[in-house]
Structure to design on (317 residues):
C-alpha cells in the first residue's frame, strides 16, 4: 500500500468512527417522546404506499390439564401495498410459516396479490407433521399453481368504504371520523428516548414504550360505535379485563427525516392465571416499513386459474 492509499484508508476509518460516535450521541428530540411516537403512527397511516416485513414467533403453554400442552409457531411475511386510490388497491404478500401443537402441525409457503380486478393466490408448499396430513391429491391439485378470483365492482366499492385510505380529500365521513379517532388516541405510555439507529437507510429515533391498554380498549369501543355497533359498558369492562391477561412492550423507531414510525420490535406476554386456567407464554413481533410513497406494481400471473372452491373447502384449515 502506497502512502496515498494509507492516507485514504486512515481518513476513511476516522470518518467512520466519527459517524458512529455521532449516531451514538444523537440529540434527543425536544418534542415529548409520546407525541413523537403518536405522530409517527399517524404519519404511517397517511402514507400512500410502502413495503413491509413482519416476523412473528410464538412460544405458548396451554391451560393446565388441557391439550395441546405447548404451541410454537414462526411466521415471516413481506411485501408491498398502495392505498392512494381506494378504488385501485395494490397489494403484494409473500408468507412462510410453521406451527406445532405438541407433536402435530405443519408448514406452508404462499403468495397473495391483489389489484382492482382480482385476487391471486399461490401455494408454493404445504406440508403436515405428526398426525396432520395433507392428502396428496389436494397437494397435486393446489400446490405450485396460481389461482385467481375476480373482484366484483360492488365488492370493491364496499371495500373502499371500509378500509383506511391515504386519500384524505376523498374520504367518506366514516373514514374521516376513524382517522380523527386514530389521531387523538395515544396507544402507548412510559415512552422513553433511547438514542438513534439506522432503519432501512434512514436515521431514526429509538424509543421504548408500553401499550396503554385502557386507551386501546377505549379506541376499540369507539371504533365499533363509528361502524354502527352498540357497545355496552359491561362489554368494555369485559374487554379491559381480558386485556389484563397480557402485556405488550417494545422498541419503536421513528424516522428523523420522514417522521414516520418505521419499525416496531416488541413482545406480547400472556400471563397465566393463578388457577392455570389460561394460556401463557410469549409472542415476539418485529415489523418494518420502508419505501414510503413509492409506486407499487402488481404482477399478474399469466397462467392463473379460477380458484376451485370445492378443493379449498377440503383443506384441514
Amino acid at each position: 500500500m502506497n502512502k496515498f492509499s494509507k492516507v485514504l484508508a486512515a481518513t476513511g476509518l476516522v470518518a467512520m468512527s466519527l459517524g458512529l460516535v455521532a449516531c451514538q450521541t444523537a440529540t434527543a428530540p425536544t418534542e415529548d417522546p409520546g407525541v413523537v411516537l403518536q405522530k409517527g403512527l399517524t404519519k404511517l397511516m397517511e402514507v400512500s404506499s410502502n413495503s413491509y416485513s413482519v416476523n412473528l414467533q410464538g412460544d405458548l403453554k396451554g391451560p393446565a390439564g388441557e391439550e395441546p400442552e405447548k404451541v410454537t409457531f414462526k411466521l415471516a411475511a413481506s411485501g408491498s401495498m398502495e392505498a392512494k386510490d381506494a378504488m385501485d388497491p395494490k397489494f403484494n404478500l409473500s408468507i412462510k410459516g410453521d406451527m406445532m401443537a405438541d407433536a402435530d402441525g405443519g408448514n406452508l409457503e404462499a403468495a397473495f396479490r391483489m389489484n382492482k380486478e382480482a385476487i391471486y393466490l399461490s401455494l408454493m408448499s404445504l406440508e403436515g407433521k405428526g398426525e396432520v396430513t395433507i392428502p396428496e391429491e389436494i397437494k397435486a391439485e393446489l400446490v405450485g399453481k396460481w389461482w385467481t378470483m375476480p373482484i366484483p365492482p360492488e365488492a370493491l366499492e364496499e371495500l373502499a368504504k371500509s378500509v383506511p385510505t391515504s386519500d384524505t380529500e376523498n374520504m367518506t365521513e366514516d373514514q374521516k371520523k376513524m382517522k380523527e379517532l386514530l389521531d387523538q388516541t395515544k396507544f402507548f405510555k412510559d415512552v422513553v428516548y433511547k438514542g438513534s439507529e439506522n432503519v432501512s437507510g434512514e436515521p431514526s429515533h429509538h424509543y421504548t414504550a408500553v401499550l396503554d391498554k385502557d386507551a386501546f380498549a377505549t379506541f376499540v369501543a369507539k371504533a365499533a360505535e363509528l361502524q354502527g355497533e352498540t357497545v355496552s359498558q359491561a362489554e368494555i369492562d369485559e374487554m379491559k379485563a381480558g386485556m389484563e391477561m397480557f402485556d405488550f412492550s417494545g422498541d419503536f423507531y421513528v424516522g428523523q427525516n420522514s417522521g414516520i414510525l418505521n419499525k416496531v420490535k416488541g413482545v406480547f406476554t400472556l400471563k397465566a392465571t393463578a388457577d392455570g386456567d389460561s394460556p401463557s407464554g410469549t409472542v415476539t413481533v418485529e415489523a418494518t416499513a420502508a419505501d414510503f410513497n413509492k409506486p407499487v406494481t402488481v404482477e399478474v400471473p399469466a397462467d392463473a386459474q379460477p380458484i376451485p372452491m370445492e378443493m379449498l373447502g377440503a383443506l384441514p384449515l
Remarks:
- The chain has one domain: 30-312.
- The helical segments are 3-24, 33-46, 136-142, 153-162, 173-184, 213-226, 233-243, 309-312.
